Amino acid sequence: MKKCIYCKCEVADKSVIDFCERCGKGVFGDRMFEAIVSNMEEAQDRGDLEQSRI
Q1: What are phi and psi of 16, to 5 degrees?
Q2: Could you tell me which of 20, 25, 24 has the C-alpha nearest to residue 8?
């Protein structure tokens, strides 16, 4: 399990973001949080997030 960068609670390893939903919505707001998650999931599907892992 990963830990949220803000509150240190556990975040699923498969999560594309490094913060929990509660903190994400608190920091970015509902709409921006959903946009961030959506864009990160699309990037993961394209393989863009794997480029730095060799």
Answers
A1: -85, -5
A2: 20
